[in-house]
Design goal:
With about 110 residues, the chain is α+β, with helices and mostly antiparallel strands. It contains 5 helices and 3 strands; from the N terminus they run ααβααββα.
Length: about 110
Amino acid sequence: MALNSNKLDEAQTTELAEVFHLMGDVSRLKIILCCLNEPVSVGVIAKKLGFSGSLVSHHLRLLRAARLIRSERKGKYVYCVVADEHIRCVLQDMVDHVSETGENIEDL
């Protein structure tokens, strides 16, 4: 499938670059991957990744603003999950790509 880059206007192109910039941060990417397949509470994300709750909350604020993560409060807990199937597919494809055997970027 060919990519139609003419489909995006200048503002959308800038937004796309900002999304990739957000996902380029290792901590934020770990948080997104942690929420890839099911809703996970903020406390569990922090514990699983070894981050403080305030750091996770800070990153989640940015990820929610970019529509990469959505959250839902259930009682006293907030659960976060990847916002939609588009984000899930892009990330799953990239996880599959870097997991393939073959040339590593360091080998080039």
